[in-house]
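Summary for the funding panel

The consortium committed to producing paired sequence-structure records for every protein in the target list. Below we show the first two records in order, beginning with the earlier of the two.
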Amino acid sequence: MRSPRFRRQPPPAPSQTLDPPEPVEVLPVGEVVEMLLDEQGYCGAYVTAVVASFDPDLRSYAVEYGTLAVSGASGHPLPKVVLASQVRPRPPPPPPGKPLLPAEHAAVDALRDGAWWLGVALLGGDLADGRVKVCFPETREVLKFDAGDVRPHLEWVAGEWRSPEDMESFKRIPYTKGTQVEVAKFEDDSVVAWFPAVVAKTIWKNSILVEYTSGKGDGSQLCKEIVDMKHIRPCPPRASAISFCINDDVEGFQGDGWWPGRITGIRPKLLYTCKIANSGKEVQLDQKALRLRCDWTDGQWKQAAQDLPQTKFTEGKRVEVTSNDEGFCGAWFQGTILKSVGHKFLVEYDTLKADDETTPLTEVIGEEHIRPPPPVFPVTNGLKLLDEVDAFTNDGWWVGMISEVISDQRCMVYFKAYNEQNEFGIEQLRLHCDWLGGRWMRASPALEM
């Protein structure tokens, strides 16, 4: 038996179950319109068509268009059924008289292969011979057109034609002027390299003018290009590896761009052999010209999976040891492994002494507090302000930051964890790096004071 409380509730009104469909402005049969194509090779372009019929239930049109359609036995264009959202009236015709040259970087439509394609007008067109230069950011092509085949771009919105300058979406491009980015280089529809650039101007929808930051080596003006936003990514994180392993997926800097590749050889003095993925060519690159490959996916940086060899700490291995005990934060002490059992290691320290102050101190250490000695990272141009360093003091290496460069041989180092500052000779300092995930990493030289 149903509860009286439920019987007193009236059934919902039918009108509340479904929202009424939005009204569609019906274009009359025989009307000349433009239809948005979705066929491969023509996606995003508009072609001229004629309305054959309208289906109010499916909210779709049957249209005929002869430019690209396959004709039947009668020789007439075959009808095509498309959603009403893919059909719009023809844009208003240009004013009579001689065509006007579009403004630089104005959004335009250009008639190509029987369809109207969205592009960007460039300077360099010459109306004396009736030609206009247009860039297509998605394909990175630049072509010339007869002036009569280029028109100002307009958008059909809520039953009226609107120019790009009047639309709010024009202001929502995430990359603003001056943003540092990287631009993809394509070969056969695949990304083969990334080139550093700066956003010079946002144009319309996804079109962005970039200025490449690497010179051509001959002192000429830096190159500019209009590209689609999907060919751009932010600059990757600045933390970089200072040691690489065989088969690491990396990007190597060559010819003013970062080229994906794989480490195939390790050479002395932080030199590596890298096999470039696109060409298969092997090149010798310095550690500074390499970085671990990261991919920009769904608005986040994701590091490419690396197949790292497992570090083995065995008897006789040189290591560095840290501690979580109060007063030892940020310090690493050098020693040698005497014995290993599972994930525990008996370590004899180089400088720390036992209670008799003569015998080297030995201690059992867990694997989480041990690492290999860091590589010798040469300081070619001297230490600089805010460089993160390790300073050798109190029998160990303590992480700090250069707070003052006194001379080429002397620096002041600030230890943030202890709010102390001391003077050191350059022979007592080394550039700081971290042992992360089985490799040595060095962060960008900027710490908060």
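The next record, for a separate protein in the list, is shown here:
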Amino acid sequence: MDAIYRARLEELLQDTPIVDTHNDFAWLLRINLHNQIHKFGFNFNSNSIVSHTSIPKLRKGRVGVQFSSGFVECKNADQYSRNFNLKSSVVRDTLEIFDITKRLCADYPEHLKFVTTCDEAIGAYHEGKIAMPLAIEGLHQIEGSLSVLRQYYELGIRYATLNHNCDNPFSTAASSIAAGLPDKGLSPLGVECIKEMNRLGIMVDLSHTSYKTMHDVLNVSQAPVIFSHSCAWALTHHERNVRDDVLLRVKENRGVVQICFFGEFLAQDPDHPTRASINDLVDHIFYIASLIGWEHVGFGGDYDGMEVTPVGLEDVSKYPDVIYKCMERGASDEDIRGLMGNNLLRVWKSVEIISDILKSKMPRGRAIEAEWEGRKWEYFEYLQDVNEVFPGSKSIYFPSHKWLPSNH
């Protein structure tokens, strides 16, 4: 029987890539090596790599498209603080994650290819390469500015998670709800941000968001949404997971839930909340597929973003084992194609098409210029004498600026 499953998978892989939407290896390089991948004997194509991710492990796992998460942690020492004017290095650190991902692709061109479109990803796969698009994990990484979001898009991000483990000016995090804080959902600025993501062609990712944020986004988004790495709340009562009523709305939205491999989101034994296995993962896949259809499930591993992996899911080489388990439980080839990657690719392509339609209806280059009302605009006093743009333009915002003692 195993030979039959292997033969089925080989046939499916002829035209269907395995797509994973969440991997934190680039962040691991940053924290371990300070982005210095030409020192210390680092070789991404070596069997000496002990982290979850390496080229040999990706190849063994038959991965065709691997989104590189541009994760940078929330910078406030108080993760529940709502002081969003905190000065931090988050944009710099995010750019370093983008840089390390692109340099990995440049250093191993026979295996990796940086891509920015769905068609480029599929093309790279048919060239025998692993496509690597970018993402960010939390809008704290744009520091309240849609201008930063637009520049991240230009640099290659193709999905943006609205939150990590902190609130931001746009939306409420699941971690805040777990801590007993109120669920404020999506803010008015968040509504404008979703519109801008739809216009740009950035997939909206609802993993890490609060329950109300999920519903608020589904009320607003004109494009299908994703959960880049989440599981079913009905099986594992964790705020990071997705409740049934939200899942049903994901079906209506034609979105996709990329199932996370993190043990705490999979474990079904309340006495052992971190003990999970590959069988728990397959349970979550089948639960969501049974509720809303196989067209709405995929893989969102979270490898190298977790320290301990579930049994049977030790690294990125294990995707075929998950697929064999699904086949064993009765999933059809068409079901498996969607799970492997076709569902995510469908959403990605839909987001691109909707972006083109939205742009065609707006004046060329017209962006959404909403800004966070709580932002502090600080300048040195000597800059009060700068020229006006047009008569009276300095009277618009200058009175509300905070003028700092001159540094000249």
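Regarding this second record: The chain has two domains: 2-374, 377-408. Residues 377-408 form one domain.
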